[in-house]
Amino acid sequence: MTENTPARKTTSRKPAAPKAAKAEALNEEVSFEHAGITFTLPTDPKKLPLTLLMTDDEIEATRIVLGERQFTEYLATNPTIEDFGQLVDKMSEARGRGSDSGN
Predict the structure, then answer these.
(1) What's the predicted TM-score (pTM) here?
(2) How many Å apart are CA 20 and CA 66, to the nearest integer?
(3) 3-state SS of the chain?
(4) Opening angle at CA 16, ends 13 and 17, nearest 5
(5) What is the pLDDT of residue 97?
(6) Are 52 and 71 in contact (CB under 8 A)?
(7) Which of 65, 80, 84, 90 has the fewest other C-beta atoms within 10 Å?
(8) How much is the pLDDT for 13?
(9) Which residues pair with residue 97 across a beta bridge?
(10) pLDDT in tens, 41-99
């Protein structure tokens, strides 16, 4: 790097959000807002339904994680594909996984 070349910023993976980490340690649920709905999720992956491991479909996986009541409430908002992506990102962030952490 020369003295005229600005330093490039590097990004690192964010650690689990403190709120989510605390909730997971206490085996509590986390909540987040999206599309005017307050969603709640378990933080402990072992508390998720076994059927989650039986699907490769992201929409079905989201339905399983949210449960029928929350997923039906979400569908009633007539979401777009873009909105669904935002929901999935918020789910990951709420659980302390960040939107770039994958499945």
Answers:
(1) 0.70
(2) 16
(3) CCCCCCCCCCCCCCCCCHHHHHHHHCCCEEEEEECCEEEEEECCHHHCCHHHHHCCCHHHHHHHHHCHHHHHHHHCCCCCHHHHHHHHHHHHHHCCCCCCCCC
(4) 115
(5) 75
(6) no
(7) 80
(8) 41
(9) none
(10) 998 999 999 999 999 999 999 999 999 999 999 999 999 999 999 999 999 999 887 65
